[in-house]
Amino acid sequence: MTIRKPLIAGNWKMNTTPQEGVALSQSICRIVDDADEVDVVLCPPFTSLIAVYSVVHHTTVMLGAQNVNQYPNGAYTGEVSVEMLRGLVSHVIVGHSERRQYYGETDQTVAAKASAVVNAEMTAIVCVGENDVERERRRAERYVRRQVRQGLTGVVNPSHVVIAYEPIWAIGTGVSATIGQIEYMAASIREEVCDVYDQDVADGMRVLYGGSTNASNIEQIVASPAVDGALVGGASLNDAEFSKMVSIMAESGAATR
Ligand code: PGA
């Protein structure tokens, strides 16, 4: 049997000053520092990474970036490379739907970024997920499978990849996908990973869910053996709520199966 350690990541998006980031991470660390059954990753904006690093680096809580450029260095104004993140973060979110939607990221850029991250021995949290139109037209599965396949093209170390299924219609809307929808898509994602690599890689791949998760619905979501954790947006900006989600996950079947 493959053991997949559950992971919960808080994506703070474009929120928090460095000072606010320190306060939020201190408060979260105080409550969850001993949660070693669950990987806890905080993903502040770039400008808060160093400040939050100083809070979390002696704890079990890990640090992630929300984006990265695929190139190691050069004339790319405003961008940040994996070289600049080395030693600071262990995880990088790649291909979040907001990056795809507002900044034109394609499956090809996602694949290049995922490669850059895993080659630097960090973990890439690769986001996939359909919008409401794809779902209404019954094309959601095909759409997500394509994102998985193309987003992993050329990624040679899949043990450093986590996939987050985040249907766009569920992000920030207060409407989470149903457990049936999540399980169905998680199975499809794993099948696609098996196709790209092999069964062992698919069995070991952690598949997270993201989209309007909170302390009230996380228990039901992670109770499913198909789901290995959550990528949390809004609720991760609330220290009590996010810490509660970590505790629920630590006590849930996800941590013990
Ligand atoms: P949400 O965001 O939890 O606020 O829906 C999830 C995400 O965008 O990762």
* Strand/helix succession: EHEHEHEHHEHHEHHEHEHH
Percent helix: 40-55%
Judged by helices, strands and strand pairing, the structural class is alpha/beta
- Rounded to an integer in angstroms, the radius of gyration calculated over CA atoms is 17 Å
The shape, in one word, is: globular
Distance between the termini: 9 Å
Strands, count: 8
Protein architecture, described:
By secondary structure, this protein is an alpha/beta fold. It is built from twelve helices and eight strands. The protein has helices at 18-32, 46-56, 82-85, 97-103, 107-119, 132-136, 140-151, 179-196, 199-204, 218-222, 239-251, 253-256; strands at 7-11, 39-43, 62-65, 91-94, 123-128, 161-165, 206-210, 229-232. β7 (206-210), α10 (218-222) and β8 (229-232) form a beta-alpha-beta unit. It is globular and about 45 Å long. It binds 2-phosphoglycolic acid. 2-phosphoglycolic acid (PGA) is lined by residues 11, 166, 171-172, 210-213, 231-235.
How would you summarize this macromolecular structure in one to three sentences?
This protein is an alpha/beta fold and 257 residues long.
